[in-house]
């Protein structure tokens, strides 16, 4: 490795540090991903809940702080992950302005409101630094191959897309929007048709009809997360069907076959089930960040792409 970057995590909750521990095979936290990469050295955690920060530091190393200012003053980190609640991201970015931060990872969504999200994208911290956004599937090799195969014509034209999610259009639904935009380009909102307040009052889960630049239409279905967790995507093409199930840990690929039961009919039959490496997505993200910092690879999930996803979510909320 060319060098090692001093790294700190702002926020010490689940995605920051608590979803896993060093013994786990899957890498589900920023702290775990940084701890496995020789190009980063964790120096500390900051959280308004100092007990959480202490727990994170005990588990992953570094020191704990009750404020961003104290962490930055004492540790002088070069790389930062922002893992605080969605509505606080803009204030965290404001506090990090002018602190010689080289880059890092921003948790999705950029913010709860489009004004704050735009302010983050326009901040000197983001404009001068190298920041990626944790839209996790964009870093995963199996999803990158899916995109490559589609672009090379392996599946033919997109006919329809259906997504299922819950726990907030911005908080979780933006994962679907980001992935669809990444795969198929521009998305226009036709209309929303229902919503449920299953997360926070300012981030409901919303169902909507979408239209892609390809001419295909899609439907985004909000599933009340208080009942159970669902995150799935069903993509129907001319020559194939792809189903993302188990939040993307599995991909089912269907191909065209002549029906053995109904003469003259062609059916879509399951041909392959792929277990993806989604459980390692944060390791892939950290590797991408390091490569970008070292100038050897472009970012795979940019702040501008995240802002585009946020604008589409805003269009969904405002649509009739």
Comma- or semicolon-separated keywords:
320 residues; alpha/beta; Rossmann fold; Dihydrodipicolinate Reductase, domain 2; 8-stranded mixed β-sheet; 6-stranded parallel β-sheet; 11 helices; 14 strands
Can you walk me through this structure?
The model has no long low-confidence stretch (mean pLDDT 96). The longest helix is centred in the middle third of the chain and has 16 residues, at 169-184. This protein has an 8-stranded mixed beta sheet. The termini are far apart. The radius of gyration is 20 Å and the shape is globular. A hairpin with a 7-residue loop joins strand 13 and strand 14 (266-275). It has helices at 14-18, 30-36, 50-60, 68-75, 89-96, 114-122, 124-128, 141-151, 169-184, 281-293, 303-318, and strands at 5-10, 40-46, 63-65, 79-82, 103-106, 130-133, 158-165, 187-200, 203-212, 217-222, 232-237, 240-245, 250-258, 266-275. It folds into 2 domains: 5-136 and 281-301, Rossmann fold (3-Layer(aba) Sandwich), CATH 3.40.50.720; 141-276, Dihydrodipicolinate Reductase, domain 2 (2-Layer Sandwich), CATH 3.30.360. By secondary structure, it is α/β, with parallel strands linked by helices.
Q: Which CATH class of the largest domain?
A: Alpha Beta
| First-residue to last-residue Cα separation | 52 Å
The domain tally reads 2
SSE string, helices as H and strands as E: EHHEHEHEHEHHEHEHEEEEEEEHH
How many strands, which pairing sense, and closed or not: the largest β-sheet?
8 strands, mixed
Helix content: 25-40%
Low-pLDDT segments: none
**Relative strand content:** 25-35%
